[in-house]
Amino acid sequence: MSAPAFYLGTHQPGWLRKARVRLFVADPRLMVYKTLPVAVDEWAADSGGFTELQKYGRWTVTPQQYVDRARRYRDEIGQLVWLAPQDWMCEPLIINGGVANGKRFAGTHLCMAEHQRRTVTNYVQLRDLAPDLPIIPVVQGWTPEDYARCADLYWSLARVDLTAAARVGVGSICRRQGTAEAGQIITRLRAAGLARLHLFGFKVLGLAQHADLLTDQDSCDSLAWSDTARKLQRPALAQCVLAGRHKNCANCLPYALHWRRTVLAAAAPLTHRTVGAAA
Predict the structure, then answer these.
(1) Containing H/E element for 92?
(2) Which residues touch 79 (CB under 8 Å, ≥6 apart)?
(3) In whole angstroms, what is the distance from residue 106 CA to residue 171 CA?
(4) Is-cis flag, bond preceding 269, omega within 30?
(5) For 108-166, what is each residue's pLDDT tens digit?
(6) 17, 45, 212, 241: most buried by Cβ count inside 10 Å?
(7) Checking DSSP bridges between strand 98-100 and strand 80-83, what pairing results, if any?
C-alpha cells in the first residue's frame, strides 16, 4: 500500500516559487501579497478557519471575499490543486472557548450540529459562487458517529454525494492523530464510501499509527515542523549555523524539507520504509 500525498504546511508563501514539493498555504498569509509568487509545484490552499474561529468565534471573511481571493491565487500563482472551504471546526475549545497553551479561544458557543450545518451550507455556497474553483467538501465532528452524521448531512441538506467527490477533507482530527479514535474515524468514513480523504494536520504520529488505513489516493498536511524547530531543534541545523543564518529553524526551508523526509519515512508502509529517504 502506497503512502498518501503529503502537503508541507508553510507560513512562508515565498516558498511556492522554490520549494519544489507540495505545499499547503493559508489564505491569511497570501492575502497580504501585492505580487504573488509563481508556484513551481502543486499546492493546496487552507482557508485559515482554525485561527479565524479561535480568535473571533465566527468567520469575518465573507464567502464572496474568499472566492475572489482564491481565483487570484489560482490565476497568478498557478498549480492550485484544491482549496479548503470556510468550515467550522468541532473541537471543544473552538465551540466552548477557553485558554490552551497560552492562546485564548473566543468560542462560538454554538452546538456541534450547528457547526456541521454551517460547514455544509458554506461548501454549497462557495460551490455556487465559484463552480470553477476546486473547493473540496470537509466533514466535521468529534466522535466517529459525528463524522458519519456530517457526511449524511451533505446529502440530506444539499444532495451532495461525497462518495463521488474528488477529495473530502477530515477536520478536527489533528490533535488526536495518534489515537485509536482517529483510526476509528477514518474507518467509519471508509464504511460510508469515502475513498479519497485529506487529513488536516496529520503528521508523524498519525501516519505511522494509521498507515494501514491510508492509500496513495489520500493526502494530508502539517505545519508542525516550525513549532518543532523553534522548541526542540537547538541549535539550528548545522548548515544553518555554519552559514550564520539564524538561531533556530522556525522559518527555515532546509529544516522544513528535512522534517518532511522524516514524515514521509513514517508514512511509508512497513515493508517499504526507505521510500521517504529519496523524497
Answers:
(1) helix 92-96
(2) 39, 40, 41, 42, 43
(3) 19
(4) no
(5) 999 999 999 999 999 999 999 999 999 999 999 999 999 999 999 999 999 999 999 99
(6) 45
(7) unpaired
Q: How far apart are CA 59 and CA 133, in angstroms?
A: 20
What Rg do the C-alpha atoms of the chain give, in angstroms? 18
Residue with C-alpha cell 464567502?
63
Task: Please return the burial class of 102, using the count of CB atoms within 10 Å of its CB with bins 0-12, 13-18 and 19+.
Answer: exposed
Query: What whole-number distance in Å separates Cα of residue 68 and Cα of residue 95?
Result: 28
Dihedral-angle region of residue 254 (phi above 0 means left; psi in -120 to 50 means alpha; beta otherwise): alpha
- What CA–CA distance (Å, rounded) separates 41 from 23? 8
82 in the Ramachandran plot: left (φ > 0), alpha (ψ -120 to 50) or beta? beta
Q: Are 168 and 148 in contact (CB under 8 A)?
A: no
Q: How many residues does the chain have?
A: 279
Residue among 237, 242, 204 nearest 220 (CA): 204
Task: Compute the distance between CA of residue 170 and CA of residue 4 in angstroms, rounded to an integer.
Answer: 14
Three-state secondary structure call for residue 130: coil
Fold of the CATH domain 5-222? TIM Barrel (3.20.20)
Strands 98-100 and 103-105 come out as: antiparallel
User: Grid coordinates representing 230?
Assistant: 523553534
Dihedral sign from CA coordinates of 85, 201, 199, 274: positive
Q: What cell does 268 get?
A: 511509508
Pick from 12, 121, 116, 102: nearest CA to 54: 102
Bridge partner list, 9: 24
Question: Which strand (E) or helix (H) includes residue 32?
Answer: none
Nearest to 195 by CA among 221, 179, 213, 181: 213
The torsion of the CA quartet 36, 38, 44, 49, rounded to 10 degrees, works out to -10
